[in-house]
What we know:
This protein is α/β, with parallel strands linked by helices and 283 residues long. It has helices at 3-16, 31-39, 49-56, 66-79, 96-108, 132-148, 169-186, 199-208, 224-229, 240-258, 263-266, 272-280, and strands at residues 23-25, 27-28, 45-47, 84-87, 113-117, 154-158, 190-192, 213-216, 234-236.
Amino acid sequence: MPVDSLADKARQFSELHKQAGILVLPNAWDAASARIFEEAGFPAIGTTSAGIAFSLGYPDGQEVSWPDHLSVLRRIARAVDIPVTGDIEAGYSSDKEQLSKIIVDVVRAGLVGINLEDARPGLGHRDPLFSLAEQISRIRTIRKTATREGLRLFLNARTDSFLLAVGDPAQRLQSAMERVVAFVEAGADGVFVPGLKDAAIIAQLTKAVKAPLNILAGQGVPSVPELQELGVKRVSVGSGPMRAAMGQTRRIADELRNTGTYRLFTEGAVSYPEANQLFEDLG
């Protein structure tokens, strides 16, 4: 993709966080889901690392190799004309030189943004999150690398303080707030705090952080209009739609196995000609 075109998409994506309304960002796990979200009229899409992992036969948590993950990101970016931001988990490396190479891969794959989480990959860590100093250094590495590649990559810095229930519950909000404020000072364009459902806490964060706040949608989370009233600028859905598709597939399997009927995979299905049409112009 020409640099100028990618730079235009990056500017367009950044501006979506400055509009009056909230940015609703669906998360794709393959080219088909990306095209469907684009066709539905969304101005941009994200990817879901969990959805990509499940579709490739792996658990979430950087279990997919980076080349395999990158291949899916590249296919998604190629499939749509709207901006794409990628969930690259913890950056696939704690080594700054390797992290820099991964950011080069991301930019050259045609993405205009990333999510970077502060949770260490894998289980059983005494300290489940990267230290604040480590994460700040990683954010600065990403910013420097993207600038060298000629792109203002939208860096959405994520803390898993709430999602992983890290530390003393009474101190969790203060800890998360300190982290995301520091992330923005280090060069992040936005912040992401998954695991939040409490409207009062969300409101406190939107007031404390001088950058767009991203909330993960799900059961018990305030609705999109309610989040907008709280000052949230971006809401994403993570692997929710992909897991819903898995649930529908399970129901189809049950119907086919138990009754031998076809209602669940014929009613409301995308027709074969429609499915082909989604990709005919891609070559």
